[in-house]
Amino acid sequence: MSFELSERVRQVPPSGIRRFFEIAEERDEVISLGVGEPDFATPWAARDAAITSLEQGKTSYTANRGRRDLREAIAGYVADRFDLGYDPDEEIIVTAGASEAVDLAFRAFVDPGDTVAIAQPSYISYEPGAIFAGGEVLPVPTREEDDFRLTVEALERAGADEADMLVLCYPNNPTGAIMRAEDLAPIAAFAREHDLVVLSDEIYAELTYEGEHTSIATFEGMRERTIVFNGFSKAHAMTGLRLGYALGPADAIGAMNKIHQYTMLSAPTTAQYAALEALDSCDDEVREMVDQYDRRRRFVLSRFREIGMDVFEAKGAFYCFPEVPEGFTAEEFAEDALREQGVAVVPGDVFGTDGEGHLRVSYATGLPDLREAMNRLEAFVGDHV
Ligand code: PLP
Q1: Is 38 in the pocket of ligand 1 (CB under 6 A)?
Q2: How far is the CA of 124 from the centre of ligand 1 (A)?
Q3: How far is the CA of 155 from the centre of ligand 1 (A)?
Q4: pTM for the full predicted model
Q5: N or C: which terminus of the chain has fewer CB atoms within 10 Å of its end residue's CB?
């Protein structure tokens, strides 16, 4: 017999990034600028706290919403860093990565047939997540001439006034775009006017290289309609520990917790101890990692310009998004650069059709490898353009 797959699962194609990793595995000496995770290890104090918790046998479930002391630390952190006020008892839930929090929100707030507007290019999980919840996706293309920021014109062009939910990700994966307060204000007004629930994935908030990150939830009338996602994977280099969180009004977080308590019970306990320590004592390490990303960002942007590839000035996350030279599709460029020069980058169309013509290049890789990778890309462009 074979399993009859649900319509929802059949609707979602396999991840486009995977295929490139498979080609990369066939070759020696590939430098990967394809992955979206820090090359740094988790700060030592956080790892040490995890080890100590294991030595002490702290291996049981925690409260469904996460340890109370961790939620309190998260409340303090988001208040200090982003001017966000959330009650640790009712308005914060700790999850298995921000990924789980995003999935919980789709399942808690999307009914079959609801329209989920997603600003694109965007992180690859939103569209499948919305579809798995029964929603219908409305892509909202952003444009390079707007520095890949979302505008009210883009929302109107896409018909997002009719949507039920709007998904934002700034700093953005894959473009590296950020939205400043003055860019967010009209989007907040649009969401209020058209009564949209907003999911705001702010997992790269710490990785903002010019100015300070602003959350859309800080605008008047937005706290009550917004769920903010954040986590420890990126800024604290904790991807494998799988810890994230969501912030929102008590009834919304309560609804997400209802799903979480039946499907996950609680986020990984060892990781919660690591996260508590990370918030308590690892600010210097975070700052050092952010400084290094910034140095790499400037290096990669300037090398793309030297090579003669147009690249928009990414200001956040750890990606840049150069344009593919004429004569190539993004997929052809990525595949040929990998086969001929052993450099893995991701074609932009993986992140939505409006990503076509671009490449996502991650600089979460040490400078020596980045230098070599950029030399190889220069040779590749020299051979073909
Ligand atoms: N959100 C964005 C925008 C991401 O880029 C990623 C990972 O690449 C995630 C969420 C997943 O985060 P986590 O590891 O906390 O599940």
Answers
A1: no
A2: 9
A3: 24
A4: 0.97
A5: N
Same domain, yes or no, for 54 and 113?
yes
Residue 361: its pLDDT value, please?
Answer: 97
Taking only the tens place, the pLDDT of each residue in 56-91 is 999 999 999 999 999 999 999 999 999 999 999 999
Q: Print the domain residue range for 11.
A: 7-42+284-384
Residues 23 and 70 in one domain: no
Q: What is the Å distance from ligand 1's center to 98 Cα?
A: 6
What is the CA 256 to chain-centroid distance, rounded?
A: 20
Residue 70 shares a structural domain with residue 218: yes
Amino acid at position 62, single letter:
T
Asked if residue 164 is part of any domain, the answer here is: yes
- Integer Cα distance of 267 and 256 in angstroms: 13
Write the residue with the smallest CA distance to atom 4 of ligand 1. 123
- Pocket probe mutation, ligand 1, options 203, 238, 242, max atoms within 8 Å of Cβ: 203
The tally of domains found in the chain comes to: 2
Residue 36 Cβ contacting ligand 1 at under 6 Å: yes
316 touches ligand 1 (CB under 6 Å): no
**Residues 263-285: what's their mean pLDDT?**
98
Considering the domain architecture, whether residues 267 and 322 belong to the same structural domain is answered as no
| Domain boundary, last residue among 281, 298, 313 | 281
Ligand 1 centroid–CA 231 distance in Å is 8
Which atom, in ligand 1's list, is nearest to the CA of 99?
A: 16
Give 169-191 pLDDT, tens digit per residue. 999 999 999 999 999 999 999 99
Is the same domain home to 76 and 14?
Answer: no
Ligand 1, atom 7: nearest CA belongs to which residue?
36
Provide DSSP, 148-194. Answer: T---HHHHHHHTGGG-SEEEEESSPTTT-----HHHHHHHHHHHHHT
- Whether 186 and 269 share a structural domain: yes
Does residue 301 fall inside a structural domain? yes
Question: Is the pLDDT confidence value at 244 over 80?
Answer: yes
Ligand 1 site, residue 122, Cβ cutoff 6 A: no
Decide which of 258, 281, 304 is a domain's last residue. 281
Please, what is the end-to-end C-alpha distance for the chain in angstroms? Answer: 52
188/329 same-domain check: no
Q: How distant, in Å, are the alpha carbons of 167, 290, 332, 358, 376 from that of 381?
A: 36, 30, 13, 14, 9
Ligand 1: centre distance to CA 24 (Å): 22
| CA dist., res. 239 & res. 271, Å (int) | 10
Q: Measured from the CA of 239, which atom of ligand 1 is nearest?
A: 14
Do both 277 and 328 map to the same domain?
no
